[in-house]
Design goal:
By secondary structure, the protein is α/β, with parallel strands linked by helices. The protein folds into two domains: 11-175, Rossmann fold (3-Layer(aba) Sandwich), CATH 3.40.50.300; 193-298, K homology (KH) domain (GMP Synthetase, Chain A, domain 3, 2-Layer Sandwich). Helix content is 37%, strand content 23%. The chain contains nine helices and nine strands. Helix 3 (107-119) links the parallel strand 4 and strand 5. The termini are far apart. It is found in: Cytoplasm; Cell membrane. GTP binds at residues 19-26, 66-70, 128-131. Pfam families: KH_2, MMR_HSR1.
Length: 304
């Protein structure tokens, strides 16, 4: 942990991470913060809310906002996620537009470019996953991005390996407004531990069932209490939208749910540094994606 020099001028600001689904925003957020706070999955649209990650670079405090992927919305939840992403970009001091270098500029990226152009917003473009792209193709992509006119700077990175991430972080830190720090220097996120625990369980579900399970699922932490021995008892409800999905999550003889719970518990214990007793329950809540309370819990606005 870096310590702020007493009496030195400090800077602080918000940096939004935007991009199409699966561009690697959550992986980049974890790399920038230096600790896992955002769930990562091969399944697109994994991030549903705006997660905040806090990092220190010299005298600068960087407050990163990992937004949901921007895509063509079809459902209420989709619209709320896209609205949250654009709000994050509008409110930020700086914006990092992440592009999967292996996929290039597709319809979703073009839509984002158009939105940025209409807003007159210059952004930092990070071409991600460069370790999987040949140099000539990478240079061609960089030229295409530059031609759009939305890029103030272009960085080539691999969020997964960390290649290029320190240079990006240093550049962002140098361009933050002069300001006192907004958070204690040892704080890495502003979301509650209850929400983070629910996100951990949701990640394990996606990782295990990403080919079988649709998006109609969410996790809610219903009970959280400390035990006398210093451990924590956590009760979580996995909401599924159909009865058939319940059987998929539970698995034959309850084996799938047990494996999900074991993996989630281990991650929670690592995160909190104490023993966790995790109890998972699967509940069919057919219209959970229409429930305003669930949107509030995810930090999203209920979009008509």
């Amino acid at each position: 942990m870096q310590n702020v020099t007493q009496g030195a001028e400090t800077s602080c600001g918000f940096i939004a991470l935007i991009g199409a689904p699966n561009a690697g925003k959550s992986t980049l957020l974890n790399a920038l913060v230096g600790q896992k706070i955002a769930i990562v999955s091969h399944k697109v649209q994994t991030t549903r809310t705006r997660l905040t990650g806090i990092a220190i670079e010299g005298q600068s405090q960087l407050v990163f906002v990992d937004t949901p992927g921007i895509f063509a919305p079809k459902r209420r939840l989709d619209r709320a996620m896209v609205a949250a992403a654009w709000e994050g970009a509008q409110d930020a001091d700086q914006v990092v537009f992440l592009i999967d270098a292996a996929k290039g500029i597709r319809a979703d990226e073009q839509k984002i470019i158009e939105g940025l152009s209409e807003a007159g917003r210059k952004v930092i473009v990070a071409l991600n996953k460069v370790d999987s792209v040949k140099r000539d193709r990478l240079l061609a992509l960089a030229q295409a991005v530059d031609a759009t006119g939305v890029a103030a700077e272009i960085f080539m990175i691999s969020a997964l390996t960390g290649d290029g991430v320190p240079d990006l972080k240093t550049h962002l830190a140098k361009n933050l407004p002069k300001s006192p720090w907004l958070y204690p220097e040892d704080q890495i996120t502003d979301i509650t531990t209850r929400v983070l625990a629910a996100e951990i369980t949701r990640e394990k579900i996606f990782l295990r069932l990403h080919q079988e399970l649709p998006y109609g699922i969410t996790v809610e932490t219903e009970k959280w209490e400390g035990r006398k021995d210093g451990s924590i008892e956590i009760h979580q409800v996995i909401h599924v939208s159909r009865d058939g999905h319940k059987g998929i999550v539970i698995g034959k003889g309850g084996h799938t749910l047990k494996a999900i719970g074991e993996q989630a518990r281990l991650d929670m214990e690592t995160m909190m540094g104490q023993r966790v007793h995790l109890f998972l329950f699967v509940r069919v809540t057919e219209r959970w994606a229409e429930d305003r309370e669930h949107y509030l819990a995810m930090g999203l606005n209920y979009v008509d």
